[in-house]
Design a protein that fits this description.
Helices cover 18% and strands 38% of the residues. It contains four helices and 35 strands.
Length: 456
């Protein structure tokens, strides 16, 4: 046996990835005779053949009385494989970024996607890198574990790039190992500071009320199983409200399709298609490019603009509350258009006067008169500002379109009474109701508003 066995022994770790050299208790006068070849033969005899520490050998050769144990060999560490993972391609955080224009009612965001959007990508696990122990034997790595994600509702998986895609607009929802797209976002109660304002790419369903000051926006429909106070509801699709809108003058509903509602009071309502009010419409501004139906209740006060027809049980009341029914024209836009035209006329008059002043100043010698020079500079500045304002008004007027239908094809149907002080207009033609009429139909014939008995 190698002489060094009398002086040293080797301890190999359980995983065989390191070996330590220990010294044996020997008589102090025993002489150790060794060189590098002897040390390596000693190690080889103990099956230590990989990762031998040359620095430790050098220490032994220079001073055999070094403090023991000494690490004599270190294996090549194994690198285990990394587990597979899911790389999400969108922001799943519900926290709202509080910028300078932040609304304190915006307390959360809904992680939303549009059809065709990439949702997530699967990253495969790695196999790892093989190690070598001090005996020179390979040490296999532990491979990473694959991750599981299963396409759920409205989600498709593409094998070629191991990615998931949205098959519809909606909210991303991850439940267990499944990834879903929910086209409907539901709130089980009335809106509050817990939910805040809502903005969603799909349909929103609220099982409660929309209180004053809250905003609801949806790229599809909005369904509210309660009432809207002085809140704002906007939908690209239709809006359904089981109770009604108590708008207090500021509450509003805007729909890209139909609006179906219990009642409207002091509200602002716009429907790109039809408006269905089950009961009354009171002191409100309502616009529908199609029909307005209020078959069971009264229309009292305010202004209703429709593109095709209005049908109601009663219009106005015994107190002769002023009520307007207008066909073919959006009254609010028409009023704005008239205001802009009046402002344009006033600005043109101002410009004409300024140009006359400028012409008179040009005929005078202003080089020696500081007051005239200042007057001319002021005149030119006023002309420039007036022209800018005129250009803005002309641009706005070119974009405005107050027409919402054909007044010649529109009609009004009253299934009970239309009371005094109600104004009915078909385009530019108006008729003020002086006497109460019962069960009548009104339309425009040869540029004259006609009232007919209703027989159906």
């Amino acid at each position: 046996m190698n002489q060094l066995d009398d002086f040293f022994y080797i301890e190999i770790s359980d995983d065989q990835m390191s070996a330590k050299l220990h010294d044996k208790e020997t008589e102090e006068d025993q002489e150790i005779i060794m060189d590098e070849s002897a040390i390596r033969s000693f190690l080889d005899a103990h099956h230590i053949i990989y990762g031998i520490e040359q620095e430790t050998i050098n220490l032994l050769l220079s001073d055999s009385k070094r403090a023991f144990p000494l690490v004599i060999a270190t294996g090549l560490s194994v690198i285990d494989g990394e587990d597979g993972k899911i790389q999400y391609e969108l922001n799943l955080d519900t926290k709202v970024e509080r910028t300078s224009g932040w609304n304190f009612r915006d307390v959360m965001r809904i992680p939303s996607v549009v059809k065709g959007q990439k949702l997530a990508t699967i990253i495969n696990p790695t196999q790892g890198v093989e190690g070598i122990n001090v005996s020179g034997n390979p040490v296999p790595p532990k491979p990473g574990r694959p991750v599981t994600l299963i396409p759920g509702k409205n989600v498709v998986y593409r094998e070629e790039n191991m990615s998931f895609y949205a098959a519809s607009d909606g909210q991303i929802s991850i439940i267990g190992n499944y990834i879903h797209i929910q086209p409907v976002y539901e709130v089980p109660e009335s809106l509050s500071m817990k939910t805040g304002n809502l903005n969603f790419v799909g349909t929103i369903v609220i099982h409660g009320n929309v209180p004053a000051g809250f905003e609801v926006k949806a790229d599809r429909d909005v369904k509210i199983f309660g009432m809207i106070e002085a809140g704002t509801v906007t939908a690209e699709g239709s809006v359904y409200v089981s109770e009604g809108l108590a708008g207090q003058g500021t509450g509003s509903i805007k729909a890209g399709e139909n609006i179906t509602i219990g009642y409207i009071s002091q509200g602002n309502v716009y429907a790109e298609k039809d408006l269905y009010a089950e009961n009354s419409i009171l002191h409100s501004e309502c616009v529908a490019r199609g029909h307005i139906y209020c078959q069971k209740g009264n229309i009292i006060g305010g202004t209703l603009s429709a593109g095709k027809a209005v049908e109601a049980k009663d219009i106005g009341n015994h107190l002769s509350t002023k009520t307007e029914i207008i066909f073919g024209v959006n009254k609010s836009i028409s009023n704005k258009e008239e205001e802009l035209k009046a402002k344009r006329k006033k600005l043109k008059d101002t410009l004409r006067k300024l140009e006359l002043i400028g012409a008179r100043l040009d005929t005078q010698d202003i080089s020696s008169n500081p007051k005239l020079r200042i007057s001319l500079l002021r005149q030119k500045n006023s002309v420039s500002k007036t022209k800018e304002q005129l250009t803005e008004i002309e641009d706005t007027l070119s974009r405005i379109n107050s027409h919402i239908g054909s007044e010649k094809e529109a009609h009004l149907t009253v299934r009970n009474f239309i009371h005094q002080n109600t104004t009915v207009a078909f385009g530019k033609y108006q008729k003020k109701i002086i006497n109460t009429h019962h069960y009548v139909k009104m339309n425009l014939i040869n540029n004259e508003i006609m009232i007919h008995p209703l027989f159906d």
